[in-house]
Write a structure and sequence with these properties.
transmembrane helix, 3 domains, mainly alpha, 735 residues, two-stranded antiparallel sheet, globular, Choline transporter-like protein, 10 strands, two-stranded antiparallel ribbon, 24 helices, glycoprotein, transmembrane transporter activity
């Protein structure tokens, strides 16, 4: 064990401070003036999520334990008991082991037993044990030192037994000091078996395998990051050029996108079927012999079933795309005209193409702030200790697994108050160890401790405030729910602000171009009007979306918790509720989007704009919905073509299929990871650019329908439509 010469003195000071704090509690209560002057700080500590903790809740590698970055488990075989621990006791924690855990400077590099002569060389004990305490047998009986030391290696801050696979089905032996191998025993006096160790560290061994894969993925990203950035830059340039060219070549480019999409699906279908036939012939005409999940992508490429599934899916998509083009050919002509008009509107307001990057930055900031708040809330509260171990042993001394306990009283007076039912005698900790009872008081989580006296802490405050603080402490999930709600609200608010600003730009283009011309700073003017006059409209519209989202999330959480305890009828009810809430959220988003357009036109409030938008929707349901969705589909095809083109180019590059770039291809373990990042990033970039077009289409469509409504009410109304739009809507141009 690593020596700490000031450990004993530190614990004496800590004990004296605790006694002094308890006796002078009233004297230490701050006055309001002192509380206001005191420097404030966050109560949570995100380091709890990054570093391991010992049995007392101390964070290894930080503070006074900065030189002890690893945690050592006294007896890994007790971790097997975890498999029988109820879920309610685990408190959603992935790994809780009912054995004492301490922070150490380094993991032991050799195996030993407390009866061996070399045990003191790397002895691991609790912090109050000094180098002068040499009665190892008594220390082990009292639970202050580990009965055995196993050669370990660090894994995520935990000391995990080395070469665990080679120890399976074998008895652990180590030199006893006389260079003679002797059997090592666990804390229950049983020979230490490699299979028990493997079962005890199974969870962390799985993490070790994932870590090895993660290391290779990080190496791939480190090697290929420059190529990923180049692909992102290329996708931004192609998206920009696509939109610029749509001003003059809207129809050809859209038809090129449609034809390219259909041809791409046809090529994928043909290649997949061809690969399937070839692999099936090489596989004795069998589609699949065996299937298993592996990390090597080449394994899946060699299976005929993989290419069969790809061929079927791409064939179905090909059939659907062809039917849509044939059935909605006339609607496509209308949509193409609106797209062409939208391209002109975007060209008039060139700087609006760069606007989506501002909401993107806001979204990143909101997400980062929400993530930080969530981490602080998750780590706020007091250390909670719970009883862990064997349930039958706990029952024999009137204890309950998962019950809150006090580690300071555990080894001294806790058991004096608990009587064994079978023999009616009191047991000390060493008596429990001798009796083979596996019961420990270990750190569980940070949260609300019901044993804390809030009345003394909140002394002098109002009754309503005391009730509120007590309620929040007893239900610490409420701040997390509020944090999630604010995240939904701010996200929806950012989307609403972006839509209203763009709607203001294109509404001004539609209505003012004949009389006042298009101002060069229309984007800045629209942003100014949105911030100064319409923040309330955006806030209320986004509030409705946030409430519906929160209800959906809470419903899904409740469904997950009671999934194993409900029948088919309850699951059907949950499914129907989720479906209804999903449809409601989609409709409200669609209504809000059109309400923001009406607000940009008339400057009206949310309710008035929503009412007018709803009237437009129900007055022209087929024309509005079909044309709007057709335009969305055509815009989606543009995004898909760019994404597919960049993705195919990256695939050919990373698989050494471009001879001219052969010398520049990096060596990767899994080329699919950078390829997926390129595809996802390209789609996000294209979505940012094409979202401007989508809003231009919706705004011009609503403005045109509103223009037609005004003409129906007033025959003398002069429409502001362009010639192309008048031709689409069959409106005669007024002289």
């Amino acid at each position: 064990m690593s020596k700490h010469p000031k450990t004993q003195e530190r614990y004496r000071k800590r004990a004296s401070n605790q006694i002094s704090d308890a006796s002078d509690k009233e004297a230490q209560i701050e006055s309001p003036k002192q509380a206001l002057r005191r420097k404030k700080s966050c109560t949570g500590d995100p380091r709890q999520l990054l570093y391991p903790t010992d049995s007392e809740g101390n964070i290894c590698g930080t503070g006074e334990y900065a030189n002890r970055p690893y945690v050592y488990f006294f007896d890994w075989t007790k971790c097997i008991k975890l498999l029988n621990v109820p879920t309610s006791v685990l408190q959603d924690r992935p790994f809780v082991c009912p054995t004492k855990q301490v922070c150490v400077q380094q993991c032991p590099n050799r195996t030993s037993y407390y009866k061996f002569e070399d045990y003191n060389v790397n002895r691991i004990c609790t912090y109050d044990v000094t180098q002068y305490d040499n009665d190892n047998e008594q220390l082990v009986r009292d639970g202050k030192c580990a009965s055995y030391i196993i050669a370990s290696k660090p894994l995520f801050g935990r000391c995990v037994p080395q070469q665990i696979d080679s120890l399976t089905n074998s008895i652990i032996q180590a030199p006893n000091g006389n260079e003679v191998n002797a059997t090592v025993y666990d804390s229950n006096g049983q020979p230490l078996n490699g299979s028990k160790l493997e079962e005890g560290v199974k969870y962390l061994v799985d993490l070790l395998n994932l870590k090895q894969i993660a290391v290779m993925l990080v190496e791939d990203l480190t090697t290929s990051w420059i190529y990923i950035l180049v692909a992102f830059g290329l996708s931004a340039i192609v998206s920009f050029l696509w939109i610029v060219l749509m001003r003059w070549f809207a129809k050809p480019l859209v038809w090129l996108g449609i034809i390219g999409f259909i041809v791409l699906l046809a090529v994928i279908t043909g290649l997949a079927i061809f690969e399937f036939i070839q692999l099936r012939q090489n596989n004795d005409n069998q589609i699949i012999k065996e299937f298993k999940f592996v990390a090597d992508a080449n394994y899946y490429r060699s299976l005929p079933i993989t290419w069969l599934v790809i061929g079927i899916l791409s064939g179905i998509l090909l059939l659907i795309a062809a039917l849509i083009v044939l059935v909605l050919f006339k609607r496509l002509q209308i949509a193409l005209t609106i797209l062409q008009e939208a391209s002109k509107a975007v060209a008039y307001n060139f700087f609006s193409l760069f606007w989506p990057f501002i909401p993107l930055i806001l979204h990143i900031g909101i997400f980062a702030y929400w993530a930080a708040i969530t981490m602080y809330l998750a780590t706020a509260g007091k250390p909670i200790y719970r009883i862990a171990g064997n349930q039958s042993d706990a029952d024999s001394i009137d204890l309950t697994i998962g019950q809150i306990c006090d580690p300071k009283k555990w080894n001294k007076s806790f058991f004096k108050n608990h009587v064994v039912r079978s023999s009616q005698i009191s047991l000390s900790y060493s008596n429990l160890t001798d009796a083979g009872m596996n019961v420990e008081c270990i750190f569980s989580e940070y949260g609300y401790d019901p044993q804390v006296d809030l009345d003394s802490i909140l002394n002098g405050t109002g009754k309503h405030f005391q009730s509120f603080i007590s309620f929040v402490n007893e239900n610490q999930w409420l701040p997390q729910v509020f944090s999630a709600f604010m995240f939904f609200w701010l996200t929806a608010f950012t989307i609403g602000l972006s839509e209203l600003v763009l709607a203001g730009v294109y509404a001004r283009y539609y209505w003012d171009k004949k009389r006042f011309g298009i101002p060069c700073l229309s984007l800045g003017q629209s942003l100014f009007r949105a911030i100064v006059f319409h923040l309330g409209t955006i806030a209320f519209g986004s509030l409705i979306i946030a409430i519906v989202k929160l209800i959906r999330v809470l419903l899904e959480y409740v469904e997950k918790k009671v999934k194993d305890k409900t029948g088919r009828f309850a699951r059907c009810v949950f499914c129907c509720c989720r479906c209804c809430l999903f449809c409601l959220e989609k409709f409200l988003k669609f209504l809000n989007r059109n309400a923001y357009i009406i607000t940009a036109i008339y400057g009206s409030g949310f309710f008035t704009s929503a009412r007018r938008a709803f009237q437009i929707i129900i007055s022209h349901p087929i024309r509005l919905l079909v044309i709007d969705k057709v335009c969305d589909f055509l815009i989606f095809l543009g995004k898909l073509c760019i994404t597919a083109g960049i993705g195919i180019l990256a695939f050919f590059f990373f698989t050494h299929r471009i001879a001219q770039a052969e010398n520049y291809v990096p060596e990767l373990h899994y080329y699919l990871i950078p390829l997926l990042l390129i595809i996802i990033g390209t789609y996000v970039i294209t979505k940012c650019f094409f979202s401007v077009y989508s809003m231009a289409v919706d705004t011009i469509m609503i403005c045109a329908l509103e223009d037609l409504r005004m003409q129906e009410k007033n025959k003398n109304h002069q429409t502001m439509m362009s010639k192309n739009l008048q031709k689409v809507f069959r409106v005669k141009k007024d002289n």
